[in-house]
# Entry
Amino acid sequence: MTQPHPAPASASWPRRADTGAAALTEEDLDRIHRWWRAANYLSVGQIYLLDNPLLRQPLRREHVKPRLLGHWGTTPGLTFLYAHLNRVVRERAQQAVYVTGPGHGGPGLVASTYLEGTYSRVYPEVSQDEAGLKRLFKQFSFPGGIPSHVAPETPGSIHEGGELGYALSHAYGAVFDDPALLAFTVVGDGEAETGPLATSWHSNKFLNPVTDGVVLPVLHLNGYKIANPTVLARIDDDELDALMRGYGHTPHVFTAGFDDEPPQSYHRRFAELLDTVLDEIADIRAAAAEQGAEQAGRPRWPMIVFRTPKGWTGPKSIDGHQTEGSWRSHQVPLSSARDTDEHLQDLQDWLTSYRPEELFDEQGRPAADVAALAPPPELAMGALPQANGGLRRVDLRLPDYREHGVEVPVPGAGVVEPTRVLGSWLREVVRANPGRFRVFGPDETASNRLQDVYDVTDKQWVAGYAGGDLDAHLGRAGQVMEMLSEHQCQGWLEGYLLTGRHGLMSSYEAFIHIVDSMVNQHAKWLKVTNALEWRRPISSLNYLLSSHVWRQDHNGFSHQDPGFIDHVVNKKADIIRVYLPPDANTLLSTFDHVLRSKQYINVVVAGKQPNPSWLTMEEAVRHCTRGLGIWDWAGTEQPGSEPDVVLACAGDIPTVEVLAAADLLRQHLPELRVRVVNVVDLMRLQPEGEHPHGLSDRDFDTIFTATRPVVFAYHGYPWLIHRLAYRRTGHANLHVRGFKEEGTTTTPFDMVMLNDLDRFHLVMDVIDRVPGLSSRYAGLRQQMQDLRLEARLHAREHGEDLPLVRDWVWPQAADAGAAPAGMANSATGGDND
Amino acid sequence: MTQPHPAPASASWPRRADTGAAALTEEDLDRIHRWWRAANYLSVGQIYLLDNPLLRQPLRREHVKPRLLGHWGTTPGLTFLYAHLNRVVRERAQQAVYVTGPGHGGPGLVASTYLEGTYSRVYPEVSQDEAGLKRLFKQFSFPGGIPSHVAPETPGSIHEGGELGYALSHAYGAVFDDPALLAFTVVGDGEAETGPLATSWHSNKFLNPVTDGVVLPVLHLNGYKIANPTVLARIDDDELDALMRGYGHTPHVFTAGFDDEPPQSYHRRFAELLDTVLDEIADIRAAAAEQGAEQAGRPRWPMIVFRTPKGWTGPKSIDGHQTEGSWRSHQVPLSSARDTDEHLQDLQDWLTSYRPEELFDEQGRPAADVAALAPPPELAMGALPQANGGLRRVDLRLPDYREHGVEVPVPGAGVVEPTRVLGSWLREVVRANPGRFRVFGPDETASNRLQDVYDVTDKQWVAGYAGGDLDAHLGRAGQVMEMLSEHQCQGWLEGYLLTGRHGLMSSYEAFIHIVDSMVNQHAKWLKVTNALEWRRPISSLNYLLSSHVWRQDHNGFSHQDPGFIDHVVNKKADIIRVYLPPDANTLLSTFDHVLRSKQYINVVVAGKQPNPSWLTMEEAVRHCTRGLGIWDWAGTEQPGSEPDVVLACAGDIPTVEVLAAADLLRQHLPELRVRVVNVVDLMRLQPEGEHPHGLSDRDFDTIFTATRPVVFAYHGYPWLIHRLAYRRTGHANLHVRGFKEEGTTTTPFDMVMLNDLDRFHLVMDVIDRVPGLSSRYAGLRQQMQDLRLEARLHAREHGEDLPLVRDWVWPQAADAGAAPAGMANSATGGDND
# Structure
């Protein structure tokens, strides 16, 4: 690394003794307990009550919701922690986000942010009075209301609580490059069983103790899932201790709720533990600051094991079955409260056990002393700007990508590895944006040819060093993040984006399916926040899929599947964008665009192998702006009349094959009027009514014609093109070649042939589809078939492609003396995993 | 559990002292070393050589492959372990499978199984002579040859080595119910960073030490990935030790290759370690057998940390860069061996360093004493029947599902939870098939209403017990496997199936995307093995997705996405099947079918909420056999003439809505001739040329007509129906309603309305599409729109659906006095997570 990491923003991590806070009094603890009771009351109210929010009348059946939905079990633990955090955030003026791993504990977070006042500031109609309470209760998990999980609608959340497993990844992503931020992260013991969570503990090997913030994990052992105990609650204490130490943490165990210990006592114990742990963090920070970002070692960060009963403070037993402290507390313990008098009474008893009359005043406002536990609004965890990243987001400084463009004197010249060219520009992006742009990938940044970024930054690595060459490009502070876990990279990037920064993730096309479900969850976050005025737009989630399915050099058949595009396209049209730049200059232009964008999921597929350049930088900019276009220079149209056939392509390999087919057609069918169309922005194919990028029918017909055969060579599964272009006038004339799940081969052209996407087959397609050709050109068709056979046999004999194919160069480029490259031997260049 | 687990098959786990094996001699160790050298030589040969396999001529450029593809780095570790295992397998007559986590070390496994003789038995043309060696080398990662990874083509493998993360899950799946089997499982330190692998260590909490076999994990710390060090190789020894103990293992550390220790010495150390570890396992087994399957506690199973240099025995350095012991060994260290004399010489030196002339005889056969290290053929790891599960597979005994059918006196009667009915039959399947049928799910078996299985078996749980009620349905040996990790459940099930057994996985529809990429890998395994005569067919991978996207009761918007079906349908047609049974009887019939099938991925989507039954058992069998059909009783056709409109449906909720729409049309448009079609087997919609289940065009047109409007209500994303039916005559008349990513609601009908799939909207669709209706029935259309609005407002006011909707019953059923249920309030029944 040639450029040091920027000095961290001033970040104060005081010890409690240095804050001037007074010793904890019984009143302090009582206030915490009262807050907790209030939050639990509000949580139970949300799950059950349609009316009578302050229980000022005896509970009647019609006060209870007809459908009881939600999750009680995890909630009291979450509210307990929130209550205590209020105090330390206030005392230490600590910027803290609260990441809720057990996201189904939605009522607890809504209740807590309501008590602190944030909720009513964001949603004024949910006011701090009896009418507001009624709204608060009714809306929960109710048609037209809010989800039962922690969600984008929940102030203070950067974490959608549906699918479990990503709490720690999100938390670490949030604190990267934010040295003042504490991510207080509750990990549920159910969630802890998932794979992504199990590996995300190791994030601490990637956290700089000076330039990044701090994650404080709390493993919430309430012991049960839906209908089972949890693994981590049922291993021996010494094993759990070893596991946490093995993960690199110093565990602190807190247990409460299983005996008759009075609340004052367990609140005191937890408050003191929290102070101990935060002081430990303060000491670590101070020591690391002393050593400096480039020298500080990896601390054994503290974490808390928080063992409390599931459904703590809820009904001890229902119908003779233990409920508190059991999986029976998971959802709605008194599910027939509206149906039986006995359960209605149980619910009334449960609610009144919190003594709401002591917690809310006449108007229904939280009692003043309880409300005063909350930090000032600017520090309230529900209102911290980091939890509404768009508030903090500043556009990237983007250096001029045109300066990195490839010289293209004639089409087909300028053979380069496109992603390597992109890397040269990304180096400048990294340089220009210290502390707010990171590159994430599962050990593939260099493999994907982005290694130029290492001229200006390192891979952040806070585990052990072996010295010298073996640690190439590793540094304790850097803007590249690599761990062999797509889940982890995705989760970190999401956390980084959600807190207002920028980034991209590079991955193999085939393996990006690993995060399919995470993409779903992020897409839903974007969809929902698009409709929430108070949530400001965040940077797009950008994928670069550069080791794609057509070049499986080192990996045989195992690394195939272009279906991520299909997966993404199923999401809402206003969120997703898919780009298939055919060469280096279009890739640059595309990436400049996606790094400027907000609230999208951008998928860019572009190969890393040597590839001809087709467009000059200026042409590339125009082409990308249009999203698709006719390549006049490649076709043989006559001005003023429609072509006989359209050869369309999307993707780098399909583009090479279509151009080679166009070349063959020029040679063998010179009178045929061929139009060549290239598509960069796949969404242009959709009708304008279905996608914001969609072409009008008139424009579409102008480009693809309404009547002529269109032979379309596509990077992915062919059906997607049909789907996108389905409503177009000439759709019946559209013939798509794409990926067919064929091939166990290692030679590029052989792979293309196995899937019938090759130049020879495309020529055959043209002969078959243009009226009148098939009888007149039977010989040519046979010749094409023979060439395919020859190419197949050559590959099987020699292990490389037919020279005729391998050495093919677009005629203009050949005339200009350009070297072949389209399907070059990648023996020295192919390093897919 | 009312029925004890069957007594285990006799499983002998002797201590070495009891086997009669003599003490290890220097000759034994020399033989192991010679085997290792031979395996390494064969591995390097596969990566580099096209010819001159025994180096009987000086190496020339043309002997080197033109494209050098493969992975050397992990290989020597894999061959080292295989060599040593041969000895212990032979001495102890141990059934052992070798699970290769670092699957890109394909050449090492091919080399090892070639040396042991299995490879030539399976592929006679790859003979044990010079000609066979040449074939062995050439075929590797070569067009028309074999993949570079451990793959279905590799004898002895149950583990495709493309995507990393599943080695331990597969290994545990393999040993469940196979008490004599040892799964020797190499976990790469790269793979160890993935989420799925990180949680899979906890599999040991689910392994019975009497009735299951044993997994011996070897964490192969060679220190590097593609271009980075690995996390676990760069944490302190005490942390790694703690981590493994935290995972419940007793670690044994072995380090070699970093100094000048002579081979005899490190081979002796490892051989002794292996004996120690296997004796430890023998002691554990003996103690557990003493206690019995129902009483034995959880042992702290041994595992081995195997720390050796990446690319061990390869070039120490190339072009001045350290290569052995560095990430530079990952793939092909001498990538320009064909291009430069210096590297060609380096390659020659490397190959001759193994002294092939001492390892192969004149004919090119492995030297007799080396070959004799291999176990006898029936125990050779490449040939163990467990690694070719189809050899061991025995059809399930399937009790008559008809006996579990619901009485359906008239359509729409017999309101039941379909999966609960299925559960009653699965209970009998479990009962009839001890030890070879397991039910897997991420804590959802009871939530998905399959709890009847607990009458005859338990959830296998070998972690701690709390006592009584809190441990309901837990047992140390049982046929239900639950851990909150879809990855883990899927991996276990794959391992179980691949070794010849049967099972199913139940999961939420939305979360099954978590395993998208694993499905890819398994689908590829099936595709490839379909073409390998020697691989016998295994049982299908069966999914039951019962908490589906239309019933998000407890979960608001977070649990949606029916795209798993789309993902699966992208795979090869001869592998995938998708079923959407509309009621309990069709679900029973479908499951009977899928549990009999082989080599498929079967996706069955069926709700768990109360649902009317439409077909008697006999009708259901006929309907499922056809896969789709006209429901005469629901339509208003006149014999002898085409209907005016076809209402089609696939999925339980769409079926209810279509029938309710048909009912509305009867009332309001009695003269309209309506046909109702239900589709169970989605693949029937495809042309017969594209899928084995595809209907002929004639049959399709007979059912759907070629000319009439078809309004199709579909469970998932509507585009899939267009895609499947795209080539059908009447496709232009097809109008599909399905899932549109809309809805943040909790009321069933409201959800359906948000996606325009509701009965009122379907009636509007019919009015819009049947010629002549729109002008005459504008009033009815308006009425439908008004009802939608009313339903929306009612839900938002009352939190439940309009009584008109909620209480709707199909008229015949209403006449017979049947209760409503189609969209019943599930307050007491809905327990999605």
Notes: The mean pLDDT of chain A is 94. The longest helix of chain A spans residues 263-291. Chain A touches chain B through 143 residues (CB under 8 Å). The domain at 627-801 of chain A is CATH 3.40.50.920 (Rossmann fold).
